[in-house]
Prior knowledge:
The protein contains two helices and four strands; from the N terminus they run ααββββ. It is of the alpha+beta class. It has one domain. It has a four-stranded antiparallel β-sheet with strand order 1-2-3-4, with helices on one face.
Amino acid sequence: MNRNRALWILATIMVALITVTLVTSSNGLGQLEQHLAEQGWEESKLTLMAGGYSSYFLRQSAHGRYASSDPTRPGEVTVKIERPTPFHDWSVTTYRHDLGDT
């Protein structure tokens, strides 16, 4: 009886921990600009054209497509970030700068 009770308590704690982590963690959309800044992009020179967020169980991803108004770096910028669980940091999985019609 004590073993079953201990297992239920442990399972309840784990579910509560995962729930709190999922609810309080970033959805990644705010992280896109941070990753673009690391690539040298100024937020004021980018206009978000499309973006989104998705999650599957614990895995999360966010993506965005931006138009650049920077005269030295014209075109479109696409970035996608993912993390396997809310306990991991976001990492860039796709980064592309298309010059477009110049």
